[in-house]
Amino acid sequence: MADTVTIGTRSSQLALWQANWVKNELEKLYAGLIVELHRIKTRGDKILDVPLAKVGGKGLFVKEIEQALLDQKIDLAVHSMKDMPADLPKGLTIGAVPPREDPADVLISNGHSAFDRLPRGARIGTGSLRRASQLLHRRPDLTVVPLRGNLDTRLKKLATEHLDAVILAAAGIKRLGLAERITQTLAVTTMLPAVGQGALCIETRTNDKRIAKLIAPLNDQESSIAIKAERAFLKTLEGDCQVPIAGHAAVTGATIVMEGLVASLNGDEMIREALTGDVEAAEQLGVDLANRIIAKGGRILLAALGKAGNGKK
């Protein structure tokens, strides 16, 4: 076994935290193993002045890293699971899902104590159509302001863009030690998370048995089961992170409970369903939940978004 492993990662502060976490865990597990980071700039990192939904395409934050993996320039990749398209390139697989961080979204505001206390017409910053649609579904009076950039940049824009609040993922805030900035953790009844939110994805080559064996101890069974259900849900809907799709699964013992939704951009239409099943059939649960939403008009709603230029494949 070689003594060096190279991890491919984006260069943002959060991405480097995630990659370094995997690096440190591997070095603790294997004495003498040297783990190096290889920083890769993705298309999503290069285009910062356009809302993600208008950039189009899947894999905006992973494609270049995946290509480096296929080209054997790196041994594994560490991504945010919510950035992963439903379909992976041939020859690549999700090798491990470490213990999931808090999957919720959070409100961060300098002058308001809770979401329900935001004034009428409040300006809310988010770069996510999923978040925007759910915000407007609950509070159509709000003004949603498109927000791009890394976590630190988005926090700064809270002041520079004269925003009343921003909505961000709890996981990133907590991983970077900024939990004290959280004004309110949003309940899933208010804001259902993105598929995979809070989880890390360790992606590997399908036939690389050496790396598969190395990372196996990093896999968390409950997190992995939940992610299988969520990604099966996403794949069945043929959606990506640039359309208002949300899905979250929770595992308790031998039971898995999953909620999912599809919404219009302005939040006036929303199809939301939940299912409970056995962990042994997690993927099927995700498929069944998606099909239930499709039966209630979810595919038609997504098709309408695609025609509007917001669901390009």
Could you list some keywords that capture this structure?
313 residues, alpha/beta, D-Maltodextrin-Binding Protein, domain 2, Double Stranded RNA Binding Domain, 5-stranded mixed β-sheet, 11 helices, 34% helix, disordered C terminus
Quickly describe the structure.
With 313 residues, the chain is an alpha/beta fold. It has helices spanning 13-29, 43-46, 52-55, 63-70, 129-138, 151-160, 170-175, 209-215, 221-237, 282-295, 298-307; strands at residues 4-9, 34-39, 76-80, 92-96, 105-108, 123-126, 143-146, 165-169, 184-185, 200-205, 245-252, 255-263, 270-278.
Task: Report on this structure.
The protein folds into three domains: 1-98 and 199-219, D-Maltodextrin-Binding Protein, domain 2; 105-185, 3-Layer(aba) Sandwich (D-Maltodextrin-Binding Protein, domain 2); 221-313, Double Stranded RNA Binding Domain, CATH 3.30.160. It is 34% helix and 23% strand. The chain contains eleven helices and 13 strands. A five-stranded mixed β-sheet has the order 2-1-3-10-4, with helices on both faces. A five-stranded mixed β-sheet has the order 7-6-8-5-9, sandwiched between helices. A three-stranded antiparallel β-sheet has the order 11-12-13. The radius of gyration is 19 Å and the shape is globular. The relative contact order is 0.15.
Biggest sheet statistics: 5 strands, mixed
Helix-strand pattern, N to C? EHEHHHEEEEHEHEHEEHHEEEHH
Counted beta strands: 13
Radius of gyration: 19 Å
- List the quaternary state of the chains: single chain
Counted up, domains total 3
The backbone outline, from C-alpha atoms, is globular
Q: Estimate percent helicity.
A: 25-40%
CATH architecture of the largest domain: 3-Layer(aba) Sandwich
Mean pLDDT: 92
Runs in which pLDDT lies below 50 for 5 or more consecutive residues are: 309-313
The strand line-up of the biggest sheet is: 2-1-3-10-4
CATH superfamily of the largest domain: Periplasmic binding protein-like II
- First-residue to last-residue Cα separation: 40 Å
The CATH class name of the largest domain reads Alpha Beta
Class from helix and strand fractions: alpha/beta
Total count of helical runs of at least 4 residues: 11
